[in-house]
């Protein structure tokens, strides 16, 4: 049995779906009964309701499992301690494989949530566990948050300049890569960048949207204070806001680009392009 922690989010569901396609038996660790019911309907064999800030949740979830795909809640201030508890539980139950969901370029101290993932990677290196670390680029799915504005107004709204270069990855490809790593030999003691596209400027992203949607789409940069006000209105917490602003400022200065060679090798095909993604997701009903 394979455990996915933090399984209720879009990343966890992508990994769950890919494992189920391979006929694997999967347990999920989630925060609520509602989340558990959703994932059981998707095909999870078992769901543990717990709190990742408490070590007992990891111990309950890891009993009887052989491998874990560990996803920490997004931008959690306690990521290092949560990672430590997950690793300790895996050691206690002798898990054969610990796969950690990290981030592209965790060495970037200016982005604190990246830096914390690097600290968890270090704990894993020193744990004695057989591990694989996946470092995904920003998701193509993030574009969908602005789908209404793109379709109705022709604006692709972003809180950084149009010339900012970012690599991206389709979550479908990330899920499949995770499933390969968890179920096929040869991937232990490895650190993999999971990148789908080359670094694209946001103007190039808008050009893809325009071409595939057959309508003009222009980049519209949002000032950070306006972005802050908008997300405060919808109830985003101050810690997450500050972490995201740091990230946007980093993107504006340096971009975030990687190489898709490794993902091509894992998938044994080209990763999905942004064109593939837009054609699939924007026309889905």
Describe this structure in words.
A seven-stranded parallel beta sheet has the order 3-2-1-4-5-6-9, with helices on both faces. Helix 1 (10-21) links the parallel strand 1 and strand 2 (26-30). It has twelve helices and eleven strands. It has a domain at 2-137 and 169-195 and 258-269: 3-Layer(aba) Sandwich (Rossmann fold), CATH 3.40.50.720. Helix 9 (224-233) packs antiparallel against helix 10 (238-254). It has 285 residues and is an alpha/beta fold. The mean pLDDT is 97. It is globular, with a radius of gyration of 19 Å.
Distance between the termini: 34 Å
User: What's the total helix number?
Assistant: 12
Rg, nearest Å: 19 Å
Low-confidence stretches: none
């Amino acid at each position: 049995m394979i455990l996915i922690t933090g399984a209720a989010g879009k990343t966890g569901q992508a990994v769950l779906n890919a494992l189920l396609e391979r006929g694997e038996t999967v347990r999920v660790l989630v925060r609520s009964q509602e989340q558990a019911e959703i994932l059981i309907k998707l095909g999870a064999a078992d769901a543990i309701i717990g709190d990742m800030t408490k070590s007992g949740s990891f111990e309950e979830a890891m009993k009887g499992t052989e491998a874990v795909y560990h996803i920490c809640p997004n931008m959690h201030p306690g990521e290092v301690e949560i990672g430590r508890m997950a690793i300790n539980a895996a050691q206690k139950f002798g898990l054969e494989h610990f796969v950690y969901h990290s981030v592209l370029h965790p060495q970037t101290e200016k982005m604190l949530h990246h830096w914390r993932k690097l600290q968890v990677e270090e704990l894993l290196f020193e744990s004695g566990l057989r591990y694989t670390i996946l470092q995904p680029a920003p998701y193509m799915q993030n574009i969908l948050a602005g789908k209404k504005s793109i379709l109705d107004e022709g604006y692709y709204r972003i809180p950084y300049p149009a010339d900012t270069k970012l690599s991206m990855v389709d979550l479908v490809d990330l899920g499949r890569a995770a499933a390969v790593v968890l179920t096929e030999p040869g991937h232990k003691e490895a650190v993999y960048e999971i990148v789908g596209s080359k670094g694209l400027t946001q103007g190039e992203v808008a050009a893809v949207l325009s071409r595939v949607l057959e309508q003009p789409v222009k980049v519209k940069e949002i000032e950070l204070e306006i972005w802050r006000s908008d997300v405060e209105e919808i109830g985003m917490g101050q810690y997450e806001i500050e972490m995201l602003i740091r990230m946007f400022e980093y993107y504006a200065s340096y971009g975030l680009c990687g190489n898709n060679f490794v993902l091509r090798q894992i998938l044994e095909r080209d990763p999905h392009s942004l064109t593939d993604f837009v054609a699939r997701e924007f026309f889905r009903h």
